Amino acid sequence: MPAADGYPASANLNVWLAALPTAHVKSIGYSLGSGVQGTAAISSLSLTSDNSACVLDFKDYVTALCVSQGNTWSQEAGDIAPTAIPAGMLFAGPNTAAVDYYHPVSGNLEGVVGSSYTIAEASGYQAALVYEVNPDAVLNTGGPVVHYATISIEPYMNGWAQGQTGTFTVTHSTLVWTSKITSGPGSQSQPVSIDAMTALMPGNTLLSQGLHLGTNSTAEQSTVVSAVTGCGSFPLTDLGTLADFPTNLTWSDPVCTQGTVTGGSFTVGMVDGVSFFTGQVDYFLDGSTTPSRSRRSRSHPVTTR
């Protein structure tokens, strides 16, 4: 049965069955031929005949559900915290740095299927749902084993319009990408499904779940996230932890005139030895529209707001 594809014998299964009616199948598999460049993730194969059915599962990983690992949050170094408002968490531009919120979790990437986040308000491209993972895999041909990557789930890559609101739910076919893959399937220019990404890093483990508005955001970009489900508890209201918000001001060596502080040094943004000054609360001297750049200042006269 010569074929046009260059092989001496090539045909579909029915032709082979007619030619060899008593043959027994010894093995089944897939092969990407020599000289061919491509990537594919095959999760299962179903075979059916008149008297039998066979389903082969090729997955070499086990789903580990995403589970919360504490009621804490953080940003990547140099990034900005979102703003807590009554409607939820506000991720807004313009900013050179990213605006993000990460919550520690365990599990693996396949275990985030079914998670969701609700966008109550939006303009421009929405903040993404992201997962920091340890891929424990080579993600680029000839490259090293990668142990840290951020998997991004962008609504616009999954059919959402700019400014669209509602609840986005992660499914097995949700398209994702990571900057750790420089080109090809899994990169930003070629996102792949959750299942296909998992196949590229079958031994991955989750580090955190988060929300992320990328670098160099514009004034038109704004997202209010009101709820996140999956991975257990994901707090959206724990930014307001400042005991004496909005001042948190302490004086030293004050100069007083008739009971009123008219000079001296003051420190802002410190609660129980923890700084909330940078990226979380802005402090202004009266008459200034520019936030103070230092926790400790001298001024005459001064108030805070």
Keywords, separated by commas or semicolons:
five-stranded antiparallel sheet; mainly beta; elongated; disordered C terminus
Which structural class do you get from the secondary structure elements?
Answer: mainly beta
Shape: elongated
Describe the oligomeric state of these chains in a short phrase: single chain
- SSE order, as H and E? HEEEEEEEEEEEEEEHEEEEEEE
Mean pLDDT: 77
Binned, the helix content reads under 10%
Low-confidence stretches: 238-247, 300-305
Please indicate the percent range of residues in DSSP E strands (runs of 2 or more).
25-35%
Furnish the topology, listing elements before pairings.
Layout lengths: L12 H7 L24 E5 L4 E5 L9 E2 L14 E3 L2 E5 L6 E8 L9 E8 L4 E7 L2 E2 L6 E2 L2 E5 L12 E4 L5 E2 L15 E2 H7 L4 E9 L8 E8 L20 E8 L2 E8 L2 E2 L2 E2 L20 E3 L7
Antiparallel strand pairs: 1-2, 3-6, 4-5, 5-16, 6-15, 7-12, 7-16, 8-11, 8-15, 9-10, 13-14, 17-18, 18-21, 19-20
